[in-house]
Predict the structure.
Amino acid sequence: MKKKHLIFLALLFVSVGGYAQSRGLGAFLSHASFNIPGESPYLETYLEVMGNTLVYKQNTSGKYQGSIQVTMIVRQDSIIKDFRKYELFSPEVTDTAAIGINFIDQQRFSLPNGDYSLDLSIADVNVDKKPVVVTYPLNIDYPSDNYSISGIQLVNSYKKTEVPNVLSKSGYDFVPFVDNFYPSEKGKLTFYTEIYNPLHKEGSEDKYLISAYIESFETRKMLEEFVRIKRENSKQVTVLLSEFDITKLPSGNYNLVVNLRDKENKILTQGLVFFQRSNPGVGSPALDLASVNPTNSFADRINSIDTLREYIRSCQPIATELEQMFTNTQVEIASIDILKQFFLNFWLNRNETDPEKAWEDYKTEVRKVNLAYSTQVKKGYNTDMGRVYLRYGPPNTVTDVPFDASGMISETSVPYQIWHYYSINNNRERNKKFVFIASELRVKDYTLVHSDVIGEIQNYNWQTQLVRGIGVGDQNADKIKNDRSRSATYYNNPF
């Protein structure tokens, strides 16, 4: 399957000279926040450097070693709250042919509740190139009068702590799993999280139910074979360290979900982390169409196979990987009876009690996006804007930076739009944005280049893609700077 670069994953590339220059410098960054009741929350950053993308030089011991310059700056508005600047060294190797070991660095920042940004600058010390700088938004929110959950840390390995260090939490040293992509050789998904109950009273006999499970990213359906449930007494801090055997988890997009429920089964707090699985040796469960009887259903009333095919194609923005596979391989060759079974099954999976209403509501939205976003070569639902609209609904605000009245745009910037959602995915994510850039001048097919929504493309350097393909000399430097400043304002303060 194709690997995506997502909210918890940033892959940085710069051109380098010397050994491994064709690969570029590669690094993954993820982060999670935790709380110490009575003290202060803190942010952990996990930086993994791809060892085979560095330039290695011989050191004084005669071995080969690479190093990178790392700068991290935590800002709140324009005020620097904390920073780290350091040189990070790779493991030493005796033979450059054996280079390929990734290495990890972890940092902690003590931060009170609030909204922040993290500037990461990274550069290969042995290459004469400017560093890559990326900015990530951060939110620290641990209320003193309500339940909350820490970030969910994906774990590569752990052991009992012998000497407390930066990797230590709750008596264990955790080596983070920085990437959220699980290849077939990775058979376990191990994770760590903390649940906070500031309402806890000493001697309380209250009990809570903690559940952890894997769900389909597209349909939000829980996979019943991947569930952990435990009952816990009331505590100020409850630690959850657990794992799932994913050797039989098919390729696909998933969420790992952790929630806390009270005795009335009400969810008190919930956290999730997105991950991808590539497991070509395990077949995806076949679509069970044989048991679906479309007779006398709304699907049965569709008698034109061409109409039915078009309806099925229009569902791709909200389809699972398995459903997309069916559409891509079967929609043109399957009989109308099979297509009716698939179509009915598709909507039963989204609304078992009233699939017809679910389809009619969706069809109304398809008409809107086809009218708004269709091009000469694409239906609206096949465009990036159409797909986002159909998956997440209409944005709450749109910042549109188009051509001006004469049909021209800035000498240095292409047209773009920023879509802002107050909440998304049934309120699981808040204050989320999508950045679309015009793919061609005077064409309304805009390409999605960045979003901070889980499961979407992530590129916090998206502003570099606004620069037009023109000669950019000193005469345009101020204009580019102004364009970047304006786009940053639009992104951080949508209206």
User: Anything to note?
Assistant: The chain has four domains: 1-141, 143-283, 299-387, 395-492. The helical segments are 305-314, 321-330, 336-348, 355-373, 384-392, 474-492.
